[in-house]
Every structure is written in C-alpha cells, then in structure tokens.
C-alpha cells in the first residue's frame, strides 16, 4: 500500500474511533443520572442494605471475653492487644484492656473463629475516617469496668493471701 494512502487511512481510523467513543459518551448526556448522593439522599440507611456476612468494624463483648488471647494469636498483622485479670465468679480472665487497631486491621475475619466464647464479631459499621490515627485504636473495655475488675482481682488476691497465711500457721 502506498505510504501516503496508509498515512491518511491511519488519520481516518483515529478520527473514526474518537467519534465512535464520543457518541457513546454523548448518549449518556440525555439519560437520567443514576448517581446516588451519599449519605443524604438514600431512602434506606446504608447499613440496612449490606449483606448479612458484611465485614465491618470488629466489636468485642467484654462480658463474655475470657482474655484467652486466641484472637490475637490468629491475627496475621498483630492489631489486637489485650490483658486480663482473674475475677471471682467468672470463667477465665476478665479483660482489663482490649484494643483493636482498626488502621492496621484488614478485616480478614481470622480472629473470629478461634474465639471460644464468640466475644469478637463483625458489625455493619464501616465509616471510621479520622485525621488522627490514634483515634482508630478502639478500646472495648471502659476505664470504670477495668477499675472494677482490678478491684475484684485485688480482693481475690488478698483473700488468697489470707488463706495461704492460715495454712502456713497450721
């Protein structure tokens, strides 16, 4: 084929594909938009439209948690930290602190199956933007609860020491 003819053929093909693409783009100009403005113009809350097995933020029920550390050991990126104390009338330890760093969490769900008491689970909450990364470290045990558990543990330790002293005297 003649080089000059090939040159003009390439120009024609380029112009044709540009106009072909623009015809599709301009066809949307006369259609009703399908964009939903979030969150103000939705008829339902977004959380209500999410599937049942949605992986949102993690939640911990400190009343059933035994601080067994199974979830923290299963976490591949080490974003769960906890510590607990023995409290009378409760199986296992009661958590004094339980932190999950949501900025590190990849929501894989590997921490949920090992929990023997089902104390850790996903919620449908997903909006957690923050300017400060420290605000993304979630605490699941309040300070008052932690103080209560520590006080109960202190009383338990004192009773145990009294029993040990009584046994030594005999």
Order of helices and strands: HHEHEEEEH
For the CA atoms, what is the radius of gyration? 30 Å
* Strand arrangement, major sheet: 2-3-5
Structural class given helices, strands, pairing? alpha+beta
In DSSP terms (H or I, runs of 4 or more residues), the helix count works out at 4
List the helices and strands and how they pair.
Blueprint: H1 3-27, H2 46-49, E1 58-60, H3 70-74, E2 80-86, E3 93-101, E4 120-122, E5 137-139, H4 143-169
Antiparallel strand pairs: 1-4, 2-3, 3-5
Account of the 3D structure:
There is one protein chain. This protein has 170 residues and is α+β, with helices and mostly antiparallel strands. It is 36% helix and 15% strand. The chain is built from 4 helices and 5 strands, in the order H-H-E-H-E-E-E-E-H. It starts with a helix and ends with a helix. The relative contact order is 0.14. The model has no long low-confidence stretch (mean pLDDT 88).
Task: Write out key terms for the chains shown.
three-stranded antiparallel β-sheet; 4 helices; 15% strand; Alpha-Beta Plaits; 170 residues; alpha+beta; two-stranded antiparallel ribbon
Task: Provide a short characterization of the protein structure.
This protein is α+β, with helices and mostly antiparallel strands and 170 residues long. It is built from 4 helices and 5 strands. The chain is elongated, with a radius of gyration of 30 Å.
């Amino acid at each position: 084929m003649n080089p000059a003819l090939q040159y003009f053929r390439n120009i024609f093909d380029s112009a044709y594909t540009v106009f072909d693409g623009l015809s599709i783009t301009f066809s949307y100009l006369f259609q009703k938009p399908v964009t939903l403005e979030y969150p103000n113009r939705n008829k339902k809350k977004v959380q209500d439209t999410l599937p049942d097995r949605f992986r949102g933020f993690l939640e911990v029920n400190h009343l059933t948690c035994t601080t067994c550390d199974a979830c923290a050991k299963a976490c591949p990126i080490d974003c769960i930290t906890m510590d607990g104390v023995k409290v009378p009338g409760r199986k296992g330890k009661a958590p004094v602190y339980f932190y999950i760093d949501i900025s590190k969490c990849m929501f894989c769900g590997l921490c949920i199956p090992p929990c023997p008491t089902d104390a850790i689970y996903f919620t449908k909450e997903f909006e957690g933007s923050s300017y400060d990364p420290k605000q993304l470290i979630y605490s699941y045990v309040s300070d008052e609860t932690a103080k209560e558990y520590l006080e109960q543990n202190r009383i338990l330790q004192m009773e145990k020491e009294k029993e040990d002293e009584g046994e030594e005297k005999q």
